[in-house]
Amino acid sequence: MIIIKEKKKLQDYLNIKKAGGNRIGFVPTMGALHDGHISLLASCRRHMDVSVCSIFVNPAQFNNREDLEKYPRSVPQDILLLEKSGCDVLFLPEEKDLYEGEVKPDYTFGGMDTVFEGASRPGHFMGVARVVRLLFDAVNPDMAFFGEKDYQQCLIIRSLTSQLNLPVELKFVETRREDNGLAMSSRNRRLSPELRSDAGIIYQALLHAKASFGIESPEETENKCRQMIASRPHFKVDYFRICDAQTLKNISRWEESPGVVALVAVYAGNIRLIDNLSLKKA
Ligand code: PAF
Question: How far is the CA of 202 from the centre of ligand 1 (A)?
Answer without folding.
Answer: 22
